[in-house]
Amino acid sequence: MPDTWRDIAARKQQERADRIPKEWRLPSAHKNGSNGNVLDVPRKCGLLTTQELSITEDYDATALVAALTSRRLSSVDITTAFCKRAAIAHQLTNCLTEIFFEEAIARAKALDEQFTKTGKPIGPLHGLPISLKDSFKVKGYDASIGAAGLCFKPAETNSALVDLLLAQGAVLYCKTNIPLTLAALDSHNNVFGRTLNPANRLLTAGGSSGGEGALVAMRGSLLGIGTDVGGSIRIPAMCNGLVGVKPSHGRVPYAGQEAGSRPGSSKLGIESTAGPIAWNVRDCELLLKAIGEAEPWVFDPDVVPQAWSQQPSLARTGSSSKASQPLRVGVMRTEGHSTPLPAIQQLMDDVARQLQSPALPSWNAIEIVDVDASILGPQCLKTFNGVISIDGANYWFDLLAETGEPLSPWLQSRLKRRAPKSLDQVRDLKAQITRLQTEASSIWKESGGYWLTSDSKANKGDRTLDIILCPVAPHPVAPIDRWNTTNYTSMFNLLDFPAGVLRVRDVSEADLTGELPQSPPLNGWDKINRELWTDVDRKVYLGSALSVQVVAPKLMDRKLVEAMGVLEKALRPLSLVNARGSRL
């Protein structure tokens, strides 16, 4: 009799547990944080040495690379510290799937020895530990993506990006949890269980790169790599108060993933992309620059043959920029399908006000333009939903049937087996995507008809936006299994605009006082969104992250990251909120 999914899950969980050394296991007294917050447990549990605490808390990834290349720290010490902290993070949040700590430490030792022998690092990521979403294939380990039918079938080759990272000197040490089907916004599956938000375990850690979000938030990794086809990097970044970047398709190798679909399916729908989740923008830039300068098109033929240094830049000239143009920022407050709740409206007001503050340095001059793209949002959602259901979910239902595995609870009322779409239907959807991408290109131009404000002193039609700011979601970080729409993120996958997320500040008492409009909801999604304000104790949101999404034109990934760096500094004052919750 073949194993049931329960048998397979039990074996898989035992395998994972056995890969954590006994001396790294937490006493049960440390596993329950006050108010569901476990972020300080690694610091207090006594398992990390003073040096390991310093390595994991006093550096970012960029500083660790500098310490490695100057030989102030060894890769063995750094890798051991992050393996231990990842083990602690996992015991608190259930964020890991595959663990290969022993292999990672052995690789770190070999890299140290080679550096001593040659005096040269392998590449820009030499000796740096990097974590990966479970969908990446690492030779010798499963890429089960939480499905029992894919367990104990180790990969025979690496994903393209894995090979590139290894060639650049990175140390890979673990993979992280995801939702079943990779199409949910809360990272739960029957094989590995649910990943918890380390700052508030009543709120979601997000999906589908939720394990990465939780691990990086716990500083069990400083640089994690997720994937994103509808928000799966940006949503966990928001949920865990981090920075995340979804590149354009064609910038980062994606080939060789376990994507939960038949080979070639992505060419019929929306291409997923891989990108970083980190604590700051410069670490995201570190990774993307290392990838972009490594001739990534050699690893994946879908990648555009253009190095990072060749990509369009903001070309800002620093303190001597009197003649330079200001950073022109479009503020898009709604996508027209689900109206942001009061806390999100207040956030966008605060952000727009701060970016126009006269206190900002002159070389950071920023011009704000209000943008209304609400006519496109509902169209993008309809087309996106049509595209992601091309195969009628038959791949997943067939896979689950092999072991008798059920859908996760959140999916049971949302995912149904349907007939695959016909060739004509697929062609029509692709035509809709092309039409929407063509129309959306007008957003960036003053003459496009989407700008609500214009400068009478300028020649109308001459100006273009550098970036757009908008919400990540129409609600704060949601309780478990209650994330509403993905349209604030998925529309930019459909349009193939690169997009990132920046944490701005935390939810305060003052953010919870706003009330909903008296007008009826726009639709069913808007009604559900309002319930996240009326049918929950709003205090659950206190202290959770409020984040903003930054969007750039297609293939302008370097420009996006550079603009995010400017905004990261400009928005920093908004993180200063006093104990009473009033804005400083």
From TrEMBL:
Residue numbers annotated as active site: K133 (charge relay system), S208 (charge relay system), S232 (acyl-ester intermediate)
Binding site for substrate: L182, S208, V229, G230, G231, S232
Record Pfam families: Amidase
SUPFAM superfamilies, per the entry: Amidase signature (AS) enzymes
Keyword Hydrolase: yes
GO terms assigned for molecular function: amidase activity
Catalytic activity: a monocarboxylic acid amide + H2O = a monocarboxylate + NH4(+)
E.C. number(s) listed in UniProt: 3.5.1.4
InterPro entries to which the protein is assigned, alphabetical: Amidase_CS (IPR020556), Amidase_dom (IPR023631), AS_sf (IPR036928)
Hydrolase keyword on record: yes
Keywords associated with the record: Hydrolase
Record-annotated Amidase domain positions: 77-560
Family designation: Belongs to the amidase family.
Protein name from the UniProt record: amidase
